[in-house]
Amino acid sequence: MAGNDTPTTFKAALVQMCSGRDVARNVRDATALIREAAAGGAQYVQTPEVTTLMELDKKLLFAAIEPEETSAALAAFRGLAADLGIWLHIGSMGVKVAPDKIANRAFVIGPDGQVTARYDKIHMFDVDLPSGESYRESNSYQAGEQAVIAELPWGGLGLTICYDLRFPQLHRALAQAGAVMIAGPSAFTKVTGEAHWHTLLKARAIESQCFVLAAAQGGRHEHGRDTYGHSLVISPWGEVIAEGVVQPSVIFADIDLRLVKEARDRVPSLRHDRAFEIAHAGGVAGVKVAI
To answer: What is the DSSP letter of 199?
Structure first.
């Protein structure tokens, strides 16, 4: 938790987008919304997953993605953060890490324009749906291997991206490692969003006893996919304190991190984690688990 001289309150903003197939246009759209957020007093601004490009065609995807070192989009966002004097969190953007692989990478950029934290999405969404749709993120994306906490002036921000939301152990580990906020920028489909988005985000906030801030993609994208929108800020008690709709927009929330300590004092579950064994009836070997 933060020290006595650390500020405990700040204004956050979530930028909701409907990114398309043109990187330059997406950067312009994001820039306009980020400027709107800063004009509204936001000190921390988060954009959604795949801010700079929503593309399913592998050939077109790789043609549009650059390495981090030469990314014009990242350079533009770094300059924007410095110009506005804000903490800018690009929820994710693709960066080429090998001839045949892309990282789905988040960037936290300080008010001086320097990148202070990077996180590569750990969990890949590979699935065949009953509808006949098939998603294979691992065909194009290289999974990350390390959880990351970004140090902001107000406290630690655990970084996750979209499908990571379905893995509570990641969020619990971030909280145990010092996070008081967890970011969940996403591009949930309309179907999965309607079914699970609010429930999962509330659960992760309650389990980790952190604020959860999740900027979302929303609407019909150029490649035909519909995303759910409804960017959310959830308190450590599981309460929705800000919510977007579907169309591109900015939502604001006043964050008071004293509520983290309050939640953890009321239900001290993070202090009660234990290692234990799972026993199988019938002679099957047991399993040791640390939670």
So the answer is: H
